[in-house]
């Protein structure tokens, strides 16, 4: 099977490309630069030059593929409206190209903001509807195409997809701790995050491609609930930095942009996903990764 992957050289995408190639798939990855194209070609994948704003390249990639995995996102924290616009346009372009083919279309999302006061379940629909909502309402837009002959599969990721080389939230938390000289948690540190190792996330994507029916919502979650205090304490031990509570009003100053996320509970269940796919996470836990030095480069200038 020939699979087109956006975000193919990103954190989750690079592991997904490796997973697909090991399983015998042919992969074409969207590449924004010559360097990204060279990385893909060195692995044995093909490269298609373009980006999320180049809708013609997305159409070409989807038209020539038997499956599409959409993992790219602008993640423009300074201009989230632009990220939302680009995400909706990309998903619509890819889905329109696949309409009537019954080909798989895997679309990435996160679990943040989907429900309040409890963990997110696979049965929970996204409340983001319309172009002006989070990620441009792309999850619901993609699911609308199930009735138009697209095997849409939503894959929602834990807030921490961790491992050596991770540049996500944990990297920024550690960078803040090293800069401030204190590994902080907000308030009493009782907010909870879910987590999954990069390799387990990539394997889930492959299994979803192979097994998940149209309209599925999959959760890439290995650990359901790790308190933010436990995360901060692990960072403190790993880097020999004192640990302390940070007042909510001081969170932005201490953590930077990641403080607004560290002040949230972002947790979900993957019980249905495991039953559906036979997926069993085998990678290290988040705390094991922190303690083993997976983030030793974080915060270094």
From TrEMBL:
CDD domains: SDR_a7 (cd05262). Signal peptide: none annotated. Residues 3-81 form the NAD-dependent epimerase/dehydratase domain. One of its GO terms (cellular component) is cytoplasm. One of its GO terms (molecular function) is aldehyde dehydrogenase (NAD+) activity. This is 3-beta hydroxysteroid dehydrogenase.
């Amino acid at each position: 099977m020939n699979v087109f992957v956006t975000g193919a050289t990103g954190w989750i995408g690079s592991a997904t490309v490796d997973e697909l190639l090991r399983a015998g798939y042919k992969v074409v990855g969207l590449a924004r630069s010559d360097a990204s194209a060279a990385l893909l070609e060195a692995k044995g994948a093909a490269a298609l030059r373009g980006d999320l704003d180049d809708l013609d390249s997305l159409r070409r990639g989807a038209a020539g593929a038997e499956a599409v995995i959409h993992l790219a996102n602008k993640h423009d924290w300074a201009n989230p409206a632009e990220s939302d616009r680009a995400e909706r346009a990309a998903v619509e372009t890819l889905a329109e190209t696949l309409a009537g083919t019954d080909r798989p279309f895997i679309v990435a999302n996160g679990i943040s903001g989907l429900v309040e006061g409890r963990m997110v379940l696979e049965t929970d629909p996204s409340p983001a509807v319309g172009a002006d909502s989070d990620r441009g309402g792309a999850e619901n837009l993609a699911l609308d195409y199930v009735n138009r002959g697209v095997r849409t599969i939503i894959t929602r990721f834990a807030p921490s997809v961790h491992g050596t080389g991770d540049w996500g939230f944990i990297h920024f938390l550690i960078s803040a701790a090293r800069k401030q000289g204190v590994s902080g948690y907000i308030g009493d540190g009782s907010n909870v995050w879910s987590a999954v190792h990069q390799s387990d996330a990539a394997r889930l994507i492959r299994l979803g491609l192979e097994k998940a029916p149209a309209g599925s919502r999959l959760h890439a979650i290995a650990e359901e609930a790790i308190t933010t205090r436990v995360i901060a304490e692990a960072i403190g031990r790993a880097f020999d930095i004192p640990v302390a509570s940070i007042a909510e009003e001081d969170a932005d100053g201490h953590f930077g942009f990641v403080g607004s996320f560290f002040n949230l509970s972002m947790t979900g269940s993957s019980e249905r996903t495991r039953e559906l796919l036979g997926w069993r996470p085998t990678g290290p836990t988040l705390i094991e990764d922190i303690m083993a030095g997976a983030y030793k480069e974080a915060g270094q200038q």
